[in-house]
């Protein structure tokens, strides 16, 4: 078994890809994305929730409309947006099924969303009051089950919310509750039951309950079954709780998974610039990447799995290895792409390549312009195997694309 045994990445003509698109390049698989969506939907059907479950994949973790195109044709699947600009671009690309979770916003922005008619999960009593006063077509709310700093109506405000709705003789369409990432499946089921209790106590006429995201993905695992969230067990338990707590069968259940359906659809291909440099201080592997291409790895202390390719793009496996840190191409002291060391096989040097796996969510979208490093290109491998450039690499002067040639006085 090799690092790429389980990855769609091994089937690609990487030589052609690197020649045409250059490196660094993010590569995405349509087939893997469809497979991941199918896995969640199959699990819902197996638990008897097939007709009741809707998925809304958040746009911000991978903001490429080409990559997300399958969301247009898979049944029961839509897209979650948070900004009018996201909505506008997705409409231009022909997306139609949306929900909106905008955080805290102005009256003007609420009016924009109300005009679209899509369920919009408002995050405070003040924002809900505006929608009620303006006779919004539909009212949904976001509840902060963790009573944290996250946008959302707090537990202690639910009575007030119910009274406000009553005053205007309106019902909630949906309630969204973020169940929190990093929770065990058992804890997540506990939160589901809490949400059902909120529904029953305060909003028994709501049409949908939205459990948001936070469904774990194991970046250290290699096989698909180990990496992905256990949707079978999760849905089975939700179906059990819903039946026991007598949640009406026509109430739909919404989910907003990002990592679980997107992470293993992407890989980052880099050039290795020279053999491992070992000094009395450390061993480093010099690449043409940069931590600014995917800052989430360092920020979240996430060690993505990697693979090494020779100059003919064949995977290098076996033999002795040297433990080394993956160095980016800038002078910054901590320009290390991954937080930990990788095991570099003997013989890896200039002309070889490094593949960083599971970068389909929260990676290319978080690219920072710090250090003047332009963003990487993105290539989508279609389900039939054809390759398409979907984002061109940032130009050499990308960092300065909005720089004015002349200072322009701000008008008095
Ligand atoms: C409102 C909302 N929905 C969905 C998600 C996706 O979460 P995950 O990547 O854990 O599935 C997030 C992540 O920040 C979120 O804030």
UniProtKB/TrEMBL annotation:
Keywords per UniProt: Pyridoxal phosphate
Molecular functions per Gene Ontology: diaminopimelate decarboxylase activity
Cell cycle recorded as keyword: no
Name of the protein in question: Diaminopimelate decarboxylase
Alphabetized SUPFAM superfamilies for the sequence: Alanine racemase C-terminal domain-like, PLP-binding barrel
Coiled-coil parts of chain: none
GO biological process: lysine biosynthetic process via diaminopimelate
Signal peptide coordinates: none
Source taxonomy: Bacteria, Bacillati, Actinomycetota, Actinomycetes, Kitasatosporales
Keyword Transport: no
Cofactor: pyridoxal 5'-phosphate
InterPro entries: Ala_racemase/Decarboxylase_C (IPR009006), PLP-binding_barrel (IPR029066)
Gene: lysA_3
